[in-house]
Structures are given as structure tokens and as C-alpha cells.
Amino acid sequence: MGHQDESFQLFDQCKVCIVCSKDLSPDTAHQLASTLEENGGEPVVYESPADFPDLAEFSHIMSNTIDFPEFDAANEALIPVVKPQWMQASLSRRKLANPRQYSPDPRLFLNDVVVTCGDIPEGDKDAIIGGVLAKGGLYNSRVTQLCTHLVDLSLDSDKARVIQERRLSVKIVLPHWFDDCLKLGRRIDERPYTLPDPEILRAAPDAPIRSTESRDIIGASTPEPSTLPTPITSPVKSKLNVFHGKVVMLSPDLGIGSHLQKIIAELIKEGGGQMMSDVSKATTLVCRFREGFAYRMASRLNKDVGNLSWLYHIMTYNTWTSPYRRLLHYPVPRTPIPGFEKFKISLSNYIGEARSYLENLITATGAECTKTLRQENTHLVTAHDNSEKCAAARDWGLHVVNHLWLEESYAKWKLQPESDPRYTYFPRRTNLGEVVGQTRLDKSALESLFFASEETPTAPAPAASRKAMQKRDQNAATGKVLNSADADESVVSDATNVTPKVRKSRKTMDSKNLQTPARARLADGKENDTPSSTSSRKSKDEATAKLHEIAPDIALYEKEKKRVGGVIYGGRRKSDEDRVALNKKRTSMEVHTESEGEETADTKRQKKSKPAITMHLLITGYQRWVGNMKKEDADKRQLRELGIMVVQDARKCSHLAAPSVLRTPKFVNALAYGPVIVQIDFITQCLKKNELLDTNNFLLKDKEAEKRYGLTLEQCKASAKKNKNKLLQGYHIYCVENIRGGFDAFKSIVHANGGDCNLFRGRVSYQAQREESEDESGDEEQSNKKEIYLLSSVSGDHQKLWPRFRQLVHNMGKTPRIVRVDWLLDMAMSQKLRACEEYELNEEMAEQSEE
């Protein structure tokens, strides 16, 4: 009896709205509702097109998708959205499961994964478990029926044998699969990583990679569709009803004819909706561009704002989806992403609709999409880097990136750094076409850049442009079509009239989206004693504040639309200094919070309690950590508690720790930034005494090496400060492919010192000439630019390249110099330029070395 009683009480405090969708049928929803009722819950089944019930009533929303109109509102009100598996997991554990592990949010892309680990190193195991939990998955120490993946290196482990003997449907994958998913921030196909015969271990380097179409971009590959859709309807539900209760406004900027407008209007009315030319009364705005009064008003009031492609998509599938979900379902700006206007981008290894989608996306960014790859291109966007096109692009010094760079730059409307490892990573046997179209628009970035509101009026616009704005906005509000002269005026005036966002940052909102606490109440009903009451009170206050904030806009619109002159409003210009600074500050903050990944309130509290970082330390040659990842992680945590942040990137280091003067890439790169150089014992002693020691007592002294390399560390530091990473500015250096030490190491050293470094495979880039014409440098730098260098050795396979290099450089009107790597290393370490003559290589030297 006690057991049944306990079972009955499990969902006693839960009122759950179950959302039907194409992935959750009404029959399944009612079965779930019955189970909830049996265990004390109070379910409500919501089936489109009925009106969505009041969110405030519910403790949870159960859905297989986030594509329902109230998802954002639920997130902001801290109401957890869970998949049906949440209920089953809660029942099996006899307690409410953590809702975050069962979120349908695609950003938690491993939330269908329950992982267990076989015979893999402890460090790898910890990393995989941490990554899976952070991205919505679960870990189980044993093999159970719930497990979906076993991470192992072979089929010889105990867990692998259990899975084979019991014939469990558990995929046995190499750790590389998780590594690649986490590096990309997307879930890719497991097949190339699956034991017993993983493709990534057996496939030849030049074997073709299978291409896979992405389902996410079907019907979302262009912002301007050319044909009307054909609805996909089932025999049971043949009538279009997606517009039930919706009031749709078609913006004049769509530029569609009266005949097509009439057809769309009929389809919307057949689907239960209405047409309206007044944005204040509409629930949905369909427009082409991110501009104009109607766009800004609808966006500020959280109405659905999408483009014609989005409208056709929901007609086709008879299912509402968020216009933020797919990049090209949302209106496009008229101006390029800052910086993209000078880019020429080519595509490689994407096929079908994915290729068409990326071509349209490149155009939408303001860049030029070229059908063929040439030396004047700036970027190659590729699905994998196993092709001649990629090799040529690298030879020419172009940026070679995957489509995530393009998508995320567009989503945030800000150029993302091409050097970010996620954008330059290509899993060996995966065609990244399979994850095209999964990036969502960044709503907070859109708000701050395109429809931010403010309460403080600024200086009014000049009379002529104000008149144009009044006319434009009156027309926009009433649905009047602009003639071409009006349209031109509208573009000019709108450029001066985008207002920046000055209200509270969405950082708090982002953290709410990431942590969805259960709203369980205390048994005695003292709601005020629970943490959730504070959260709900806070969210109500924020909602009220938001209403107060937009109330003046609504009142002003209602008042002004009655006037003959139309709607009047002021606005801060795009060129205003404070607008630019504010946007820079916000966007960098948003990028930072996203890159940090999901955080709970607890981890935030811990971060606040940590001491301030007083030192960014780069470490090279620390033997204690070699092969002992667990100790390395523990030591790094301890150092962080002392205010020392261990970094891997020389650009970020203020201090360098090394056992002696070394020629490792880390050491040589760091010298260009003039860090304080300490003995490796500094780390050992800080850890031992558990305190931050004075670096002056641990300064590195290595007279023997200083004499050997002809330098002193003090002079190096002083020179580096003076050089400001421009020691090799104007130098164009090439490197043979199989150079000892590796091309990447030498490339990083050249770049750290401001030079340009490329791989030499028998071609020379004309980028050097382009850069030369763009730069206005002094005579000394100009003389440097007349020489082009090749880092080489005297080995036979390197010598074969020398005649070709000389010929190509002479053709460019330059002087070829073939040198030992010591020339570069000696300059980078001493931070002083050196004549290349004593380092030059020629055929005579090669012959002497052979003798």
C-alpha cells in the first residue's frame, strides 16, 4: 500500500501541458496524460489550432519539439519544457528527474544519449562524461537497457561482451565520436566511429567521403521562394488549420503582385486565419527586410515575424515553427554584416539543397559567392577538407572553414573569428553537409541591432527625412504599397533611424534558458518558502517591466496614427558613437556567455567566489604532467584558486614558465609577446605551499643557452615590447610541407611576429602582391617585401622544389631566398632581424652534406 501511495504522490504538485505535434500524436498525448493522472499529476492536452492555455497555470510543459509559439515565453517564465521520457525516468527513479536532461532544445544536442564507458583512460572518461552531461545527455556507470552508447577502444572489454551476448541495442563507438561532436557543437553520424570496424581507422586518406542531405534546410534554403507551396497533408487531417486564430499582415516590402496576394489571403482564411493591414492588430507579420515601423513594432511586441519562405513552410507542413529556427525564414537586412562586403566566398563538397542554402546565405551576408575558386577569393567554405580545392585554397593563403562560421556569423550578425577551432575542424570521415541548417538566429543580437527600443528620445531627424519617415511608417501601418520613389526615400531614412537597446542585458535571460528548475512546492503549501516562488515573482516583475517599457510605443502609435501626418518617432543614428560602443559591448558579452557553455546558478556562485586572475601563465616542458591528465587537471584547478590561469595560447599569456630556454613552439611564440619568464619550479612551489609566490624569486636564468643562441632574455623582452608583434611585418615566408617540426609550428611563429606564412606545394600565392599594394609601409619594409623566403632543409625531396620556387618568385618580380629554419627561430627568439645570407641553402651545400 505504501508503495502505491508513494507512486501516487510523485506528480502531486505537477500540472503539465502536453503539446501535440507531428512527433507527438494526440493518441500518445492522451496515454501520457493517463499515466500522469494515475500518479497524481494534472495534465492538459494541447492540440493546435486551439488557443494555448495560460502558461502561468503549469509547472511543466511536455513536448517533443521547441516549435510551439509559447516556447520562448515558457523559458522566460522558468517553466521547464521536457520530453515525455522525463515522466518515465521520474517514475523509474521514484523522484522527479532533472528537467534539463530531458529538454527538447536542439542546443542540448546529446540529450538522447545515455553513455557508459568501457576500457578507456580515466582522463578521457572524465572529459566525455562532462561533455555529455553539459550537452543534455546522461551517464550510467553500468550497462543497462537505457544505455544508448558504449565508449570503448575495442570489443574485448567486459561491457562490450555483455552488450554482444545480450544483443542490446547499444552503439559501441570510439571516443573520437564524442570529441568531434563536442568540438563542432553538433551531433554527427556515429557510423564512421562504430566498432568493430570503424571507418575512421581503416579508410585511406584520399577515399571519398559519403555525402548526406540535411533535413533541416528542406523548404528553408532561400529567403525568396519563387513558387507557391503544395501542402503536405495526411488522410486524417487534410484541412489546413495552422492559421487558426492568427491575424496575418503582409508587408508592402514583399513586392508581390495583387494576384499572388489574393491567393495567399485565401489560403490563410481557409486555414482559419484573418488578413489585416494594421500591425498593431496583427499576430503575425510577413515581411522581406529587417526595417520599417511595422517590423520594429511587431518585433518589440513579440509577434511572429517571418518572411515569405517561412509562411510557405508552415503552409506546406501545416505546422507552426519559429521563424528564428531557420536562418533564411527570417527577414534579411539590406546592408551586409560589417566586414563581409569585401569577402569573396566559394563552396566545396556541399551538394543539393544544402549548397543552394549556403549560396543564398552568403548572398544574405553581403559577401560575394563565386562558383569557382580563384586566388582572389578570401574564403573557402567546405564540408570536409579532403579535396584538391582545399589544398589549393591553403596554398593560396585563403581561410578554409566549415559552414558553422558562416551560419553563426549570420545568426549573431557579427563576423566570427575564422581562427576559432570549431570553424576549422573537419572530422575525418564526416561530410558536414549532414548538420547544415541547425543554427538558430540569436534573438538577443537581433533585438540589440535591429529593433531595440528606448524610452529617452534623442535629437529629432532633419525635417526632410522626418517627413519621409512619417510617410513611410503611415504607409507601413496601413499596408499601403510604396512606389519606387517612396521606397528609395524609405531606405535612406531608415538607415538613420535604428534605435539601440539600452535596457537590461539578456545575460540573465540566457542563464534562465539554460537552467530550468522544477517548480515543486513544499507539502505544507508554504509557497513563499520555496526558491521557485522567488523566481516566478522575479519573472513576473520582468514581464511587467517589459510591458511598461513598450507601453509608450503602443500609446504613441495609437495616438499618432490618427493624425494626418502619420506616425512620428525619433531615433539614435547608427553612426552615433554611443550606439556603436554599446553594440560592441553587448555582442562581445553575448559571444562570451555562449562560448562559456551552459552554467547553473551554483557554478556561477562558485565562479564569483574565485579570486581575481592575476597571472595568465603559459607552461612548456613541465614533466610532472606528461601522461598524467588527472594530476594536470587537479593542479590547474589549484593554480586557478591562487589566481593563476593556465593558458594554451601565447597571445593570452602574461607569464611563461619553462625549465630552460627552449625552442618549442610555445616558448618561441610567447617571446613575441614579451612575457615575464619564470623557472618551472615556480609552479611546483606554488602548488606545494598553496600560495601565489613572488615571480621575482623565480626568474629564469640560463646563461649557457643565451650564449649559444646569442641573446639575453631581458633584451628579448625589451625588443618584443618595442616590436609589438610586428617584427616580421611585410615578410612573406613559405615552408616545405614535411619540414622537421611541422608546418603549423612555423606558421604560428611567423604569425605571432606579424608575418605571412604559407605552405609551398609548387604554387606561390598572389596574396602577397595584393597585400603589398594595400599597405603603405616604410622603405625598409618595402625592401623586405622584395624578397620571398622558403624554409627548407637540404634533403632530396626538398631540393626538388627549389627550381620551381625560384622560377615562380622571379616571375613575380621578387628575389627568392631558400633558408634554414634557424633563420626564423633565431629572429623570433632574439626579437631582432637577421640577414638571411648566413642561413641560405643552395645545391652546393646539399652536395657537401651528402659527402
Automatic annotation (TrEMBL):
**Where is the BRCT domain positioned along the sequence?**
6-104, 104-195, 238-328, 340-423, 607-700
Q: What residue ranges carry the coiled-coil annotation?
A: none
Biased amino acid composition, Low complexity: 453-465
Q: Name one Pfam family in it.
A: RTT107_BRCT_5
Query: Biased-composition ranges for Basic and acidic residues?
Result: 585-595
Which ranges does the record mark as transmembrane? none
Q: Where is this region: Disordered?
A: 453-544, 585-609
Query: Any idea what this protein is called?
Result: BRCT domain-containing protein
